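Translate structure to sequence.
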């Protein structure tokens, strides 16, 4: 049995004779017990080990090193070395045992580790010693934590690097295995000893040259790994000379493959992938000259005997490089992305064939565990295809893509057809040309009746993807062909294929025009109800329910005719379904809630009671699979019932509030079994509470936190004043998320950002609730003050642009929701100063980061300097932070416009500074807020920003063009803008007459929407200044409705409706010439929640009902078929 009493190892007084001072027999017994299969022995040994860590740290580490140096069994020695590595690793006070040693003991341990590394003859054990040395080096060189220093005077380990160089030198060390381990240790030390590595470049260069030329392939592999690590971590100027080794490194890869060193080759390929992802320029010179290592990688991918692991890594290198250098490749080396796409298609042929495999596939559910594990290489090819096409764009890679799809689709082999269909599914999102979409659709539909079920399945899967990605064109052009075909495939002899036909219908149908769906609804409802009642196949049941939900969502009130048949069926699934089929139950909840939205609360209220009751029986934390369905169903029911949802809050909110608490389990001491912890441990993080208590929390808890706060947001936004009574308890539950401890901060970041928005909604609820009850606005004021106190106090110490952005967004929404009259002049000035200070600090961080980036490239050859492919996520984060702070300043203006006027001189200074810094978007957004909230009182600043507005309309950056157009929209109603209106008309008309943005140019499309809005504003308010040759109203109408900038679209469509009711002559045209065009636009806007409002919809209905039927009939020829159907639907009883 293992030791159960204190070890009493003996404490050495000096580093000399360490082994003699320690009871090694006890330590060997301890190590044996820790490795025992007997749980009781292991637990006793663990207890003794933990006690020794606390009471005899020096004896423990030194004794373990003595065991490692002894003649004990290799497993015992290995376990001892694993424990030494743990004990010298930085960590908590309890676990960082090395920190408790005396300086003399520390130096002795360091010396013994180096000695043992050089003397050890067992390769596996030598590797473990090296791992411990690398860990000790991290603490010995840590300038901010002196606990691991070998000498009290400072950080460092002077003997380390010279010994590594000596051991890695093949001229001085004849032991090749020893050279290899030393080289591998050097690789592990690069991150810790970067400065020392750079200053030793000459000596290191000789070592690498010698190793790369050595006969041992394993040594050459170790040298390759060291080169890759140096390239990955050092500045460009420091690794630039290593570019010359690239061809040799490719040869090393080839030699490892020839020698059958699979493990080493996998390790090296991963290192190549890391370099391609972080420093892709390292390969540019070699690729330009020989297309290597891309050719080697492609050859590996296409060699079936290489095995899935190696082939997958080869493909990953190709795809990673394409993602990092798409613009350079498109211009200089288009052969590489084409080669990558060929490799994608090649691996997508790798699908298991045979009756047994097909039977297993047919019986497996889409969401079943093991689905992704089957045909792993095929799935890698699928994902890689998506990544390559997204990175390169169809404009660049399209010729290769279409050629490969056509070639594979025309082959007889079913796997080839399957690969072609999968490639369509992965790339259809990026198609720009509708003729390409139609060509792909034709290929897919041709395979609906293929003899092999996996081909049929993939064709249907791809159709669903096309329905999502290419609406509305795909639906409008293909519904007559596709809807009957999907209906037929719902009876496919194989249930898995039939369920995918339903899934395809879900994607295609959810974007279908409601008048079209109404035409098909009866036959589909008959089919779906029949399948739902007759099948026992879970996926068919689930997809039938989802398909019914889609029909309900699209045809809305017209679904009432089916409600009484469907709702009882859904109740049976919710109440009587096998608990194991939790996803099916979740789908039923989903469908019930969608039916409620479709038919309205009067019809749904009674059934909502039963649905909520069943949801409450399933605790949110108890069933991850149902949690998301239940959350969304609850939110939809709330959206349907609005204030009437209050009756369900007593049952729902206590559990919701409880889920906002961080509950964990007490952490256990770090494991001593050397296994690195169970896989289960990866699902937990150890965090410190505000009281300093350590807890282990499941990672899913942080996602659950965010989801719970989102549900509170929905309740507040939909119920508004009806949520009033629950505001204090909700605020109490949310407040702890504002002040989580530092180590929890990043984990709770999403939940905290959501909590800020929820708090802003609480303020709105408090304001509306007080108004409904005839109360003062005290609660809303108190909530605002609490929020500002908490958030503003944390801002000066925070340097994370994401959390600062969330805080600023919360401030902005809170101020917008509480309205005017709440901020005093003093409070306003303090808030604006704090926000400007955050913007200043953000600029300082950006400047520092840019200088560091330039320093990393300084001195490097021109071909290694930054190019157009270099991205900068950090820069984007800081821009987002500054933009949110500016938006919050705009909210201050909105809440207190008169009190803000003393800030105008500072705004003038800031706009001038930002324009000088080329921060045009930020400057113009501040200008927009001044125009929007101060109107004519902003005129003194016009000379500062108005020239920049007109200049920015032609800026290459859409981020600058968008606020420029918006500024004109806001300035046009102000009389003084007449001076610039003529020029504005001409500039905007030129933009709209130019080429339309490409499909993937999201910001370009938003800019065009803002240009249309600006031209509308000019035509409405500055008509006298419009050049006679320019037809502003027809130009505006030709671009409506607006769909890209949804917020601007809702504003513009509301204005159009009001102008119609006013019988505005400019809009309607001479003699009502534009009326048909306007009515067609309104029919497309009606009840489109994203671009219309309830108020706008009511006015549109009023417009149509006031137009005589004969007048509408006379205009029918000027309307599209789709618009005619919509108008008929609007006017139907």
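Result:
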């Amino acid at each position: 049995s293992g030791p159960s009493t204190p070890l009493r190892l003996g404490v050495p007084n000096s580093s000399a004779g360490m082994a003699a001072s320690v009871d090694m027999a006890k330590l060997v017994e301890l190590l044996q017990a820790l490795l025992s299969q007997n749980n009781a022995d292991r637990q006793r040994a663990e207890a003794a080990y933990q006690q020794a860590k606390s009471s005899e740290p020096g004896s423990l580490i030194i004794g373990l090193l003595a065991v490692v140096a002894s003649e004990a069994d290799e497993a015992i020695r290995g376990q001892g070395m694993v424990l030494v590595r743990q004990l010298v690793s930085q960590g908590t006070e309890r676990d960082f045992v090395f920190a408790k040693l005396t300086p003399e003991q520390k130096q002795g341990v360091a010396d013994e580790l180096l000695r043992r590394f050089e003397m050890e003859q067992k390769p596996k054990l030598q590797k473990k010693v090296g791992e411990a040395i690398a860990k000790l080096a991290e603490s010995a060189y840590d300038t901010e934590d002196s606990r691991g220093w070998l000498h009290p005077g400072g950080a460092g380990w002077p003997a380390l690097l010279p010994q590594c160089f000596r051991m890695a030198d093949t001229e001085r060390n004849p032991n090749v295995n020893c050279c290899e381990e030393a080289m591998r240790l050097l690789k592990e030390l690069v991150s810790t000893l970067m400065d020392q590595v750079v200053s030793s470049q000459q000596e290191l260069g000789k070592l690498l040259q010698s190793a790369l030329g050595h006969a041992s392939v394993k040594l050459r592999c170790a040298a390759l790994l060291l080169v890759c690590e140096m390239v990955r971590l050092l500045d460009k100027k420091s690794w630039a000379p290593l570019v010359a080794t690239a061809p040799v490194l490719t040869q090393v890869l080839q030699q490892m493959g020839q020698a059958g060193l699979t493990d080493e080759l996998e390790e090296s390929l991963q290192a190549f992938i890391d370099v391609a992802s972080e420093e892709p320029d390292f390969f540019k010179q070699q690729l330009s000259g020989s297309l290597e290592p891309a050719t080697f990688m492609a050859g590996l991918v296409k060699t079936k005997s290489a095995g899935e692991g190696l082939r997958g890594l080869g493909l990953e290198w190709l795809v990673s490089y394409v993602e990092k250098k798409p613009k350079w490749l498109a211009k200089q080396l288009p052969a590489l992305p084409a080669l990558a796409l060929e490799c994608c298609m090649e691996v997508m042929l790798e699908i298991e064939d045979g009756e047994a495999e097909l039977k297993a596939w047919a019986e497996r559910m889409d969401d079943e565990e093991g689905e992704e594990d089957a045909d792993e290489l095929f799935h890698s090819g699928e994902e890689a295809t998506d990544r390559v096409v997204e990175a390169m764009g169809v404009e660049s890679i399209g010729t290769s893509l279409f050629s490969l799809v056509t070639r594979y689709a025309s082959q007889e082999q079913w796997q080839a057809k399957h690969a072609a269909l999968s490639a369509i599914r992965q790339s259809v999102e990026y198609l720009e040309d509708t003729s390409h979409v139609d060509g792909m659709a034709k290929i897919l539909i041709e395979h609906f009746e293929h003899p092999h079920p996996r081909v049929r399945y993939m064709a249907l899967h791809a159709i669903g993807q096309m329905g999502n990605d290419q609406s509305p064109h795909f639906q409008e052009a293909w519904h007559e062909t596709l809807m009957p075909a999907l209906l037929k495939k719902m009876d496919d002899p194989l249930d898995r294929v039939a369920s995918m036909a339903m899934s395809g219908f879900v994607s295609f149908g959810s974007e279908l025009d409601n008048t079209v769906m109404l035409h098909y609804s009866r036959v589909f409802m008959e089919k779906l109800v029949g399948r739902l009642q007759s099948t026992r196949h879970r996926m068919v049941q689930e997809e039938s329910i989802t398909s019914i939900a889609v029909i309900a969502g699209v045809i809305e009130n017209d679904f009432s005719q089916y409600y009484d048949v469907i709702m009882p069926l859904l109740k049976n699934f919710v109440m009587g379904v096998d608990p194991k089929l939790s996803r099916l139950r979740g789908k039923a909840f989903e469908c019930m809630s969608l039916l409620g939205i479709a038919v309205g609360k009067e019809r749904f209220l009674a059934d909502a009671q039963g649905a909520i009751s069943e949801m409450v029986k399933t605790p949110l934390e108890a069933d991850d699979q149902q949690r998301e369905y239940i959350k969304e169903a609850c939110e939809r029911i709330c959206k349907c019932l609005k204030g009437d949802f209050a009756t369900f809050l007593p049952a729902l909110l206590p559990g919701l509030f409880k889920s906002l608490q961080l509950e964990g389990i007490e952490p256990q001491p770090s494991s001593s079994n050397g296994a690195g912890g169970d896989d289960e441990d990866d699902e937990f993080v150890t965090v410190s509470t505000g009281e300093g208590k350590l807890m282990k929390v499941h990672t899913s808890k942080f996602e659950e936190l965010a989801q719970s706060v989102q549900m509170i947001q929905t309740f507040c936004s939909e119920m508004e004043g009806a949520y009033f009574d629950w505001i204090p308890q909700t605020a109490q539950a949310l407040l702890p998320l504002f002040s989580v401890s530092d180590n929890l901060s990043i984990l709770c970041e999403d939940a905290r950002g959501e909590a800020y928005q929820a708090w802003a909604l609480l303020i709105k609820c408090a304001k509306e609730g007080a108004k409904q009850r005839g109360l003062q606005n005290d609660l809303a004021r108190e909530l605002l003050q609490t929020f500002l106190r908490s958030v503003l106090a944390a801002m000066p110490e925070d340097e994370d642009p994401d959390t600062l952005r969330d805080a600023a967004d919360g401030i902005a929404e809170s101020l917008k929701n509480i309205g005017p009259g709440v901020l005093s002049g003093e409070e306003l000035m303090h808030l604006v100063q704090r926000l400007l200070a955050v913007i200043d600090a953000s600029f300082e961080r950006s400047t520092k980061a840019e200088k560091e980036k330039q320093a990393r490239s300084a001195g490097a050859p021109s071909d290694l300097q930054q190019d157009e492919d270099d991205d900068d996520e950090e820069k984007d984060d800081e821009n987002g932070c500054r933009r949110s702070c500016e938006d919050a300043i705009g909210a201050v203006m909105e809440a207190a416009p008169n009190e803000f006027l003393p800030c105008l001189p500072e705004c003038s200074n800031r706009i001038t500074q930002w324009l000088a810094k080329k921060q045009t978007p930020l400057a113009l957004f501040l200008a927009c807020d001044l125009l929007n909230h101060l109107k004519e009182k902003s005129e003194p600043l016009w000379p500062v920003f108005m020239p920049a507005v007109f200049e920015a309309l032609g800026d290459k950056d859409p981020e600058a063009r968008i606020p420029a157009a918006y500024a004109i929209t806001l300035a046009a109603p102000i009389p003084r803008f007449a001076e610039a209106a003529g020029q504005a008309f001409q500039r905007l008309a030129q933009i709209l007459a130019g080429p339309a943005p490409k499909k993937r140019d999201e910001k370009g499309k938003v800019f065009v929407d803002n240009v249309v809005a600006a031209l509308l504003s000019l035509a409405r308010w500055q008509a006298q200044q419009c050049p006679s040759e320019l037809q502003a109203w027809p130009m505006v109408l030709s671009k409506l409705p607006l769909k890209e900038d949804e917020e601007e679209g809702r504003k513009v469509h509301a204005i159009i409706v009001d102008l119609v009711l006013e019988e505005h002559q400019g809009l309607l045209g001479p003699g009502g010439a534009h009326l048909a065009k306007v009515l067609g636009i309104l029919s497309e806007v009606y009840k489109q929640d994203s671009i219309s409002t309830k108020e706008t919809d009511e006015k549109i209905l009023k417009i149509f009902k006031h137009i005589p039927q004969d007048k509408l009939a006379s205009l029918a020829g000027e309307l599209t078929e789709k618009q005619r159907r919509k108008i008929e639907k609007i006017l139907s009883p």
